[in-house]
Amino acid sequence: MLISAQLTETLESLAAAYGLGAVLSAAQLGGTRNSNFRIDTTSGMWLARKRYPAYASQDQIRFDHAVAEHLKERGVATVCPKPLPSGGTAWSDGAGTWEVHPFIVGHQLREGHREDTTALAEELARLHLAGETLTNRLSKLAPRGETDPAQMRAVGRELASASRECADALLQYTKWLDWAESVLPDDRFAELPSTIVHGDIQPANILIRDGRVAAFLDLDWCAWRPRIYDLGFAILFCCASREHPIDGGDIWSLTQAPRLDRASSRLFLDTYQAHTHPLTPGENGAMPAQIVLSWCHTRIMGALKVPGAERAAFLARPPHDRTELLSGMAP
User: 106, CA 20 to 30 Å: which among 167, 168, 230, 282?
Assistant: First the structure.
């Protein structure tokens, strides 16, 4: 994708602010909210991220960067932001907030791929163990994060008010939310074992190299939550097959109908538990409901990222039955 002269000038100013040397080339990368760029400079390759405004408060930036440092110090494959000469880790061009990270070479996690699934399970277990010792807290959205039923219902009502077609398409999601909340109400969710979670486990945020996780990317939704928050997303997005491989920068691609694979999800959960505390009976019982909530979030909130005229079609795609969604989940 061609980069405008104004954006090129911004990236050159950013490189100067961070002391990266002269910019030799720049390329825009994927992303559904943040704007991401690879910049090649005389000091090496870097990832420049312009944070989505809703994620760019000073409190959130400080928290996210502190989490990255905490995890990195404990051997977790995370990427810490490069500090400015002044000591800060975020830079403003007057129109937005930017951060810079070393560019990590690797390939996107391959959904349902045995080696990648094992690597993710091991590293996510390491992340959750390290996260247990972090004392910092920052509230992000509702207590249940992006899978909060009340929040999804509110967005659903907003979408339904736009057209009869959207309202009809949302009926199945409302039924799924009702079921999931009856199985996993707020008080039960809050009692589950918690730690720092990544918050957005999906293939585009996981780089693999030499059979290991080279880096977890995008900690914008890291928070103190029950660990099944991450596990639900991992099973849904990383232990399933789809018609086409996920393109993390395309919301239609990211929200394709998944076909959960029993063997892959069992391998993931067994490997995860071999490297951390075993799942409790409460966590095992809550997992199907959390997966359904994760799926509802993906479609309901994803609909906000497509043009209004396309939202009904976006929401009306299969699966149309909860048992169909969960049919390949490991027992």
Answer: 230
User: If you search the block for the tokens 């909210």, which residue do you land on?
Assistant: 33
Cα torsion through 265, 301, 57, 247, rounded to 10: 60
Name residue 99's beta-bridge partners. 49
Report how far apart the first and last C-alpha atoms of the chain are (Å, whole number). 44
Contacts of 114 (CB under 8 A, 6+ apart): 264, 267
Q: Is 4 buried (19+), middle (13-18) or exposed (0-12) by CB count in 10 A?
A: exposed
Spatial contact of 297 and 147, defined as CB atoms under 8 Å apart: yes
Which tokens go with 299?
């479609």
**CA distances, 23 to each of 6, 14, 59, 88, 90 (Å):** 14, 10, 30, 21, 19
CA 182 to chain CA centroid, nearest Å: 25
Residue 262 is encoded by which pair of tokens?
Answer: 């029993």
Tokens of 155: 């967005």
Rounded to 10°, the helix 114-131/228-238 angle is 170
Segment-wise mean pLDDT, segments of 10 residues, the chain, 331 residues: 85 97 93 88 97 93 97 97 94 95 96 96 98 93 92 96 96 97 97 97 95 96 97 96 87 93 95 98 97 97 95 96 84 68
Tell me phi and psi for residue 24, to 5 degrees.
Answer: -95, -35
- pTM across the whole model: 0.94
Return the SS3 of 137. coil
Identify the bridge partners of residue 110 per DSSP, sorted by sequence position: none
Query: Which residue type sits at 137?
Result: R
DSSP designation for 194: E
In whole angstroms, what is the distance from residue 198 CA to residue 224 CA? 9
> What's the pLDDT score for residue 327?
85
